[in-house]
Amino acid sequence: MALGVDAASWPYWSTAHGQAALQGSVLNDVTSVMDFGIVLGALLASALAGRFSPSLRVPLRSALAAVIGGLMLGYGARLAYGCNIGAYFSGIASGSLHGWAWMAAAFAGSVLGTRLRPLFGLEVERTPRQTGC
Q1: What share of the chain is helix, strand, coil (3-state, %, to 5)?
Q2: Per-residue pLDDT reduced to its tens digit, 24-73
Q3: 3-state secondary structure of 132
Q4: Which of 21, 24, 45, 58 is deepest in the core (most CB within 10 A)?
């Protein structure tokens, strides 16, 4: 609304559930609270690992990678009718072929994403190989 877009008129938000979500606090929504927890947990994990170094200067290629990745994750979640990770776990647990197909696609996507990191100016972390017994 602040940007001049009337999202309340969109079909998704015109349902009773959507209207209740628009009228209520973001803290009343379980998914939003969980998302806040994920972000805070990631910040805590990076701080505990000594890798927390916020900067307002984000390279354009890194920002582009984040936007593309976020759009792809959102699209995948919509295709899975909600949580794409849930589609994997539920599919495997129920013995459904779609869970295994999701796992193969996620693995291939992870390999591809890791190989594309240098294209966006991001490092690929490698663990040192252990030698000897």
Answers
A1: 70, 0, 30
A2: 898 988 888 999 999 999 999 999 999 888 888 888 998 999 999 889 88
A3: coil
A4: 21
Cβ(100)–Cβ(91) below 8 Å:
yes
Q: Answer for the pair 1, 7: CB distance below 8 angstroms, yes or no.
A: yes
Distance (Å, rounded) from C-alpha 66 to C-alpha 70? 6
CB 84 within 8 Å of CB 73: yes
Residue 131's pLDDT is 66
Over the chain, what is the mean pLDDT? 85
Q: What pTM was computed for the model?
A: 0.56
| Concatenated DSSP letters of 81-103 | TS-HHHHHHHHHHTT-HHHHHHH
